[in-house]
Amino acid sequence: MDEMSVSSNVVASTNRSGLIERLEHLQKELTLCEKALAEYLETKRLAFPRFYFVSSADLLDVLSNGIQPEMVTKHLTKLFDSIARLKFNRDESNEINTASGMYAKDGEYVEFNELASIRGPVEVWLNRIQAAMRASLRHYVMEAVIAYEEKQREQWLFDYPAQVSLCGSQIWWSTEVNIAFSRLEEGYDNAIKDYYKKQISQLSLLITLLLEMWSPR
């Protein structure tokens, strides 16, 4: 570049002896660097497959900030659908050492049933976060399914995270439909009609709850 800046004549500057060979050599070196970088990023994606959801530029940003979890959280929405951020805990030296829950984009908070360690390479602790998410939701779903018959449904719905309530509702809907068919086979002719009335009643109650929540005060 210094040599080319001496002359303002484009033809003279670009026809220097050996320039093409030097540029070709630089291109080969750049290709080798790009290949090595791609192979490195692939090892990280294999270690944490959700990295396939982000671009190489975003992945480099995640890896470069791996020891700063709060900097990594800006990419969470690309790695986990609807997860906006995590709740971090600090140790005595004021360094982040664990995560105890997750926040959705709409602000809903879900507590992990066990703390997730934020130590080691970023792909390692993100795997721990993912495991904590799965274990926590599995725990809450099992708890919700058991508690379904012990509470009023309108109370039960708000005692658990939205995803858990939806999943638990579907599990119990399937169970109750099967029960209704069994009663029909046993000779109870109004089993399906009665369950239909129950569903209408539940939907009407949900509509009332929503209207109360969204009505201006």
Automatic annotation (TrEMBL):
InterPro entries in alphabetical order: DHC, Dynein_2_N, Dynein_heavy_linker, Dynein_linker_3
Where do the Dynein heavy chain linker domain residues begin and end?
A: 1-143
A GO MF annotation of the entry reads:
dynein light intermediate chain binding
Per the UniProt entry, what is one GO biological process?
microtubule-based movement
- Where it mainly occurs, coarsely classed, is cytoplasm
Domain of life according to the entry: Eukaryota
Q: Which GO terms describe its cellular component?
A: axoneme; dynein complex; microtubule
UniProt-annotated location(s): Cytoplasm, Cytoskeleton, Cilium axoneme
For this UniProt record, give its keywords in alphabetical order, as a comma-separated list. ATP-binding, Cell projection, Cilium, Coiled coil, Cytoplasm, Cytoskeleton, Dynein, Microtubule, Motor protein, Nucleotide-binding, Repeat
Mind telling me which Pfam families this protein's record contains?
Answer: DHC_N2 (PF08393)
Output this protein's name. Answer: GD15088
Q: What is the lineage of its organism?
A: Eukaryota, Metazoa, Ecdysozoa, Arthropoda, Hexapoda
The gene is Dsim\GD15088
